[in-house]
Each structure stands twice: as structure tokens, then as C-alpha cells.
Amino acid sequence: MRRARAEDVAERALREVASRARALSPRSRHAAMLSAYDEWFKGPNAKRRRGEALRDAPFAETDADALAREHRFVRDDDEDGRRRGEWGVRLARRYHDALFKTFAICDVSRASEGAERGRAKIGMRWRTEGEVRSGKGQLSCGERRCARTEGLRTFECHFRYAERGETKSSLVKLRVCKKCAAKLDDGFKRVRDEKKKSVGHRKSEKRKCERRDEQDEHDHEDSRDTLDGLL
Helices in the chain by DSSP H: which ranges? Predict the structure, then answer.
């Protein structure tokens, strides 16, 4: 068996370390490099140098800070494309892509504050994978603190919200119990009613098409009889 050269072993180890480092966030990569420095170049002033490096590091926030700053209820693909070089944007984008947006989770604890103006104050967020697996927001009430599973109703609305000083709107579906549904405002429409209307509309259109086809067939037969008489 051919014995591996020390240079080859070192090169493979460096490639492996570089691969692992690229998978880390900038702050985690920075901390890992400092830890490696302390391990291999220990000295009387190692801790002091590490403290100075952390103090003067360009990373002034954690991943959680970056995610909180860059999180959006609905992301703008154009903006994300322009800022794709920023770590916080990439982190928030990955988190947003992992959320499930069929139904939302709501918070109606402050709904009564805007009720007199006809617009209840309701908080919204998308569901996580754990909530989808447990059925939260679909098989149980979508209010974040409610666990009822009986009498669930599906609602849909154009959710208006303020984000980064801007007023935005997004189509959102909720599935909540009767008690929580009573706290929603008039902007929330039951999806079942809309479906019934849509089904009735489709049936009406189908009957119109059938009558039109029958009339076309009748006109075609009249034209053929007229042509036979002429010939």
C-alpha cells in the first residue's frame, strides 16, 4: 500500500476545514477561527488578544439579530436579489422559504382595541414545520394560544399590516374556532360561502354552454336542410 505523503494529508485536511467553514455564518466562522488560533498558538496574552478581536470584529450582531432585522411577512424577490450579498438577507430568506403559507397563525389578544373603528388589531405569522406536523392552524384553532378542535371555520382576508414604516397587504387564510372567529372583523370572509358561490357560478356557466351548443346544433341542421332543398 502506498503511504500518503504528509503534504497530501495536510492539503485534504485544509480542504475539509475550508468546506466546513463556508457552511458557517460569518460570526460563527469568526469564532471558530479564533478558537483554532487559541488552540494552536496559545500564549500568555492569547485570551487578551481574543477579547480584543471580538471587541473590534465587524460582526456587531448575532444571527438572531440579523433575522429579526431582515424578516419580512412577504418577501420581495427583487429586493432580495439586489441584497443577496448580505448575510442577514440570505439567512432571512432561508427561514422564510422554510415556512408554510397555506394557513396563518394569528393573535387576537388585542382585537378589541380597533373594533370600534371596524378594524380589529390582529397579528399574523406563517406556520412552522412543527406546527404543520401537529396540525396547528388546520386541525386545531389557528389562534396561537387556542387549542380547540371543534367547530373550526376557514376565513380569508386581505391582511393589511405595517412593516418597516410601510403599509402592505397580503391575502391570508385562517382556520379558527367559533369563539376566536367572533373576534375577527368584517374584512374576514368565510371561504365556504365563497366556494358555494363559485360552484353555483360554474353550474350556471355550464348550463349556458350547453344551451349554446344546442342552439348551434339546431342552426347547423336548419342550414343543412336549406342547402338540401336548394340542391
Answer: 6-22, 26-40, 46-56, 63-70, 77-82, 87-97, 129-134, 178-181, 191-230
Same domain, 120 and 141: yes
Residues 68 and 37 in one domain: yes
Cα 27 from Cα 68, distance rounded (Å)? 16
Q: How many domains does the chain have?
A: 2
Question: Which of 94, 125, 155 represents a domain boundary (last residue)?
Answer: 94
Question: What pLDDT score was predicted for residue 80?
Answer: 93
Please state, in angstroms and rounded to a whole number, the distance separating the CA atoms of residues 210 and 216: 10
Handedness of CA 124, 111, 164, 59 (dihedral sign): negative
User: How does pLDDT run across 55-111, given as a tens digit for each residue?
Assistant: 666 555 678 888 989 999 999 999 999 998 888 899 999 999 999 999 999 999 988
3-class state of residue 99 by DSSP: coil
CA distance linking residue 55 with residue 60, whole number of Å: 9
Residues ≥6 apart with Cβ < 8 Å to 58:
none
CA distance 53 to 45: 12
Q: Which domain holds residue 181?
A: 100-193
Q: Please return the burial class of 87, using the count of CB atoms within 10 Å of its CB with bins 0-12, 13-18 and 19+.
A: middle
